[in-house]
């Protein structure tokens, strides 16, 4: 039941220790139930509650309430459980056990977390190679709000999983291949003075808008002029067969676009680097083998001049199986073939144990078919976990798909600028003493953090309304609120100067100290839950609840003016709260400034 001495940096949570105690009490009372899950959760009625009796009592033909009462007898002092752990065990309702831990273990837990390098969080993902496919914008197009969601959610998952010890491989599946490039290159060729490199453009051209403008012009020509369209198609063939000049032009477009994406990643504090880019073009040389091997496996067949794999499980409205298109009638390869080559590469060459695709929910069917085909082809074993980490559509404050007045999707830079502008006003009002340079810096941190937090704190699969005013508010469940809560604690700690934080575990505990200490002890559990559910909003909720527990504590318990031992113990709580908020925000990819 004690902390494992071999993993010194891991501080087992009290929830886990209580669960282990209940489990072992169950095992000694009913040997046939050894190792049963006692279902221990946080509770409003006590520190923790065990709901296990309800299901387990059936196995030993007892009534839940009797089972719980008997179990309670094994748990208290003299019942065999480490005497230090529980101070109170009560049966409640139809067979719940309300469990409260001693002040002593709680203070010890605070001290242990504070001393541990990573606040004692376990490395539950150690040894798991996890590929995360996220961001994946399309070259020569704007990175829009949908890509923003993928970028922000994927980055947070990459951070959390890596923090828990996973061997994370980030993959940016850039849309850098296919028919549009013939059109772009041909257009550039025919319009030698189509300026589109940002360096050649007037001030104010945003990071990605220049290639995007080229895309629009080329598209207009393509739609208006059938001969240009034909020349563009010939160009695609030239590109695919490696014609030097065409490939050079393609590289130029990709590089310019990637520079633009890189600027946005830098502003957002996204981990992706050029080394993480493995765009669609990367898989070009692997496509023939995919089609050949799926044919050899008897999965691919000809259909209307195309080569397809019909799904074994998904049917369309007409009742016929839905196909993945391996080779189009014109002989070209597309998105489906590329994703098959991609999953195969990740499995066979990257040796992934888990693959996550952080992509718009509207691509659910596509991924279902890709995973199904990979499984049928025996590339994908049951031991590997592949998941489409789907997210909903971004809506405006009125609940309509997010667009500009002209009906275009809204560019990211404009959107971030708007959030930073609002944050500047809000922060400036709150803290008029800040000088302009510092206000600018804090507004950028707060505005960018606000956008990211808003993306992350809503349930991932739901559609999500983008509302700049709400997201930069100082009150409520916002990034700004959490950043501000962190700065307030830092200022308390600055006020304490060099005062020591020696924890006296023999001291009593105020209910508000207790609530905060229990919240802080749940950090690792919250992260473990994010890793299992792939839902960063659970970490947001955890941090918000913890910040509120801190506020309650600070209202009830003076820190700097308290006499010893409360002084040192409360400083320890302040320090652990600040560190938890900072690390937690960091795992969301959000900065926690010292002041704001
Ligand atoms: N580029 C695609 C888009 O913008 C997303 C790619 C997602 N990843 C993948 N492996 N298909 O919709």
TrEMBL record:
<dbReference type="GO" id="GO:0005737">
    <property type="term" value="C:cytoplasm"/>
</dbReference>
<keyword id="KW-0030">Aminoacyl-tRNA synthetase</keyword>
<dbReference type="InterPro" id="IPR008909">
    <property type="entry name" value="DALR_anticod-bd"/>
</dbReference>
<keyword id="KW-0547">Nucleotide-binding</keyword>
<keyword id="KW-0067">ATP-binding</keyword>
<protein>
    <recommendedName>
        <fullName>Arginine--tRNA ligase</fullName>
        <ecNumber>6.1.1.19</ecNumber>
    </recommendedName>
</protein>
<dbReference type="GO" id="GO:0004814">
    <property type="term" value="F:arginine-tRNA ligase activity"/>
</dbReference>
<dbReference type="InterPro" id="IPR001278">
    <property type="entry name" value="Arg-tRNA-ligase"/>
</dbReference>
<feature type="domain" description="DALR anticodon binding">
    <location>
        <begin position="482"/>
        <end position="596"/>
    </location>
</feature>
<dbReference type="InterPro" id="IPR001412">
    <property type="entry name" value="aa-tRNA-synth_I_CS"/>
</dbReference>
<comment type="subunit">
    <text>Monomer.</text>
</comment>
<dbReference type="InterPro" id="IPR035684">
    <property type="entry name" value="ArgRS_core"/>
</dbReference>
<keyword id="KW-0648">Protein biosynthesis</keyword>
<dbReference type="Pfam" id="PF00750">
    <property type="entry name" value="tRNA-synt_1d"/>
</dbReference>
<dbReference type="InterPro" id="IPR005148">
    <property type="entry name" value="Arg-tRNA-synth_N"/>
</dbReference>
<feature type="short sequence motif" description="'HIGH' region">
    <location>
        <begin position="137"/>
        <end position="147"/>
    </location>
</feature>
<comment type="similarity">
    <text>Belongs to the class-I aminoacyl-tRNA synthetase family.</text>
</comment>
<dbReference type="Pfam" id="PF05746">
    <property type="entry name" value="DALR_1"/>
</dbReference>
<dbReference type="InterPro" id="IPR014729">
    <property type="entry name" value="Rossmann-like_a/b/a_fold"/>
</dbReference>
<dbReference type="InterPro" id="IPR036695">
    <property type="entry name" value="Arg-tRNA-synth_N_sf"/>
</dbReference>
<dbReference type="GO" id="GO:0006420">
    <property type="term" value="P:arginyl-tRNA aminoacylation"/>
</dbReference>
<dbReference type="GO" id="GO:0005524">
    <property type="term" value="F:ATP binding"/>
</dbReference>
<dbReference type="InterPro" id="IPR009080">
    <property type="entry name" value="tRNAsynth_Ia_anticodon-bd"/>
</dbReference>
<keyword id="KW-0436">Ligase</keyword>
<keyword id="KW-0963">Cytoplasm</keyword>
<feature type="domain" description="Arginyl tRNA synthetase N-terminal">
    <location>
        <begin position="16"/>
        <end position="101"/>
    </location>
</feature>
<dbReference type="Pfam" id="PF03485">
    <property type="entry name" value="Arg_tRNA_synt_N"/>
</dbReference>
């Amino acid at each position: 039941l004690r902390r494992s001495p071999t993993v010194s940096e891991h501080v087992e949570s009290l929830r886990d220790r209580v669960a282990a105690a209940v489990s072992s009490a169950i095992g000694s009372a009913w040997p046939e139930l050894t190792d049963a899950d006692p279902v221990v959760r946080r509770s409003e009625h006590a520190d923790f509650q065990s709901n296990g009796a309800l299901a387990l009592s059936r196995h030993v033909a007892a009534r839940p309430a009797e089972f719980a009462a008997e179990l309670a007898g094994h748990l208290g002092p003299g019942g065999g459980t480490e005497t230090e752990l529980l101070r109170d065990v009560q049966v409640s309702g139809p067979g719940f056990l309300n469990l409260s831990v001693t002040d002593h273990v709680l203070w010890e837990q605070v001290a242990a977390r504070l001393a541990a390098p990573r606040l004692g969080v376990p490395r539950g993902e150690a040894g798991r190679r996890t590929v995360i496919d996220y961001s994946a914008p399309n070259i020569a197009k704007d990175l829009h709000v949908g890509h923003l969601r993928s970028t922000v959610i994927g980055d947070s998952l990459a951070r959390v999983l890596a923090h828990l010890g996973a061997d994370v491989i980030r993959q940016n599946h850039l849309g850098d291949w296919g028919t549009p490039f013939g059109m772009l290159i041909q257009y550039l060729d025919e319009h030698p003075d189509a300026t589109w490199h940002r360096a050649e453009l007037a001030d104010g051209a945003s990071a990605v808008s220049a290639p995007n403008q080229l895309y629009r012009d080329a598209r207009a020509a393509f739609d208006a002029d059938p001969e240009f369209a034909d020349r563009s198609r010939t160009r695609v063939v030239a590109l695919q067969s490696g014609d030097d000049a065409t490939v050079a032009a393609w590289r130029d477009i990709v590089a310019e676009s990637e520079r633009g994406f890189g600027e946005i990643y830098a502003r957002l504090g996204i981990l992706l680097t050029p080394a993480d880019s493995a765009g669609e073009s990367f898989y070009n040389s692997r496509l023939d083998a995919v089609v050949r091997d799926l044919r050899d496996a008897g999965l691919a067949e000809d259909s209307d001049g195309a080569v397809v794999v019909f799904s074994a499980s998904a049917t369309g409205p007409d009742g016929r199986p839905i196909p993945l298109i391996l080779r189009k009638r014109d002989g070209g390869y597309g998105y489906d073939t590329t994703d098959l080559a991609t999953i195969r590469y990740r499995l066979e060459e990257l040796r992934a144990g888990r693959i996550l695709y952080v992509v718009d929910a509207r691509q659910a069917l596509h991924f279902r078919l890709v995973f199904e085909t990979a499984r049928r082809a025996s590339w994908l074993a049951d031991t590997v976990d592949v998941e489409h980490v789907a997210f909903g559509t971004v809506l405006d404050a009125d609940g309509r798909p997010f667009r500009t007045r002209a009906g275009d999707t809204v560019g990211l830079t404009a959107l971030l600028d708007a959030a930073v502008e609002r944050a500047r006003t809000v922060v400036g009002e709150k803290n008029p003493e800040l000088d302009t340079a510092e206000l600018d810096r804090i507004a950028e941190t707060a505005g960018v953090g606000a956008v990211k937090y808003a993306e992350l704190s809503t349930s991932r699969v739901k559609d999500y309304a983008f509302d700049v005013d709400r997201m930069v508010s100082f009150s409520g469940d916002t990034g700004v609120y959490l950043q501000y809560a962190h700065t307030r604690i830092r200022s308390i700690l600055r006020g304490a100067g060099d005062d020591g934080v020696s924890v006296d575990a023999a001291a009593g505990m105020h209910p508000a100290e207790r609530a905060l200490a229990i919240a802080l002890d749940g950090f690792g559990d919250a992260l473990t839950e994010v890793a299992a559910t792939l839902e960063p909003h659970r970490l947001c909720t955890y941090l918000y609840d913890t910040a509120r527990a801190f506020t309650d504590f600070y209202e009830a318990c003076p820190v700097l003016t308290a006499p010893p031992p409360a002084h040192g113990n409360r400083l320890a709580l302040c320090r652990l709260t600040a560190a938890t908020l900072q690390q937690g925000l960091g795992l969301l990819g959000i900065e926690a400034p010292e002041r704001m």
